[in-house]
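Weekly puzzle thread! Below is a chain. First person to post its structure in token form gets bragging rights.
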Amino acid sequence: MAIRLVLVDDHRLFREGLRALIASQPDLQLAGEASHAQEAYAVVDSAQPDLVVLDIALPPSSGVTVAREVLRRQPRQKILALSMYIDEEHVAPALEAGVLGYAGKDLSVPELFSAIRAVARGDSYLAPTISRTVLDDYLRLRKDGHAHDTPLRALTQREREVFDLAVRGLSNQDISAQLCISKRTVETHRGRIMRKLHVHSATDLVRLAARHGLLDA
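Winning reply:
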């Protein structure tokens, strides 16, 4: 039986290329595609794929946010993160969100297919260029509270997601749609974020993010 995939990536050309490659493999079948978060949720809910291949750099939110929401809806869903970013600062949050594998877009085609098949059968996968030792150290530091020593450490996971979207200029309504929560809940999170970070406006949030190099995180 073919492995049914859903591909989530905002670059149309990349999706078209990967679609053609998948079509060349008799044991792989593309069950759906999405270019943004809301489309991804709908396609995954409808297609019920064996595997979601997910771009981590997925504007306007992030692939990590999408992974969390997909797994909230479908806790047994297998996800392979696929990204041009393969440093521990991107890999660690993705693994913590629940993705089973993390591959770089610099993989060869055979290596990518190996990653897809491994994660589809329930095995973990980490791109060869990612140091397991470095990643383990980074995760340990995050757990101990020494990595990313910024004011954002005071935020909960959901508050951090709201913060990330807010500093990208999304409205409360847009954030509500991205995170699948009510607009009132977004407003509540915003209020808590403001109090915890001791800021008074959206502009202050952006300035804080810029000071700590978080706008492109």
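Puzzle host: Confirmed. Bonus trivia for everyone else. The mean pLDDT is 86.
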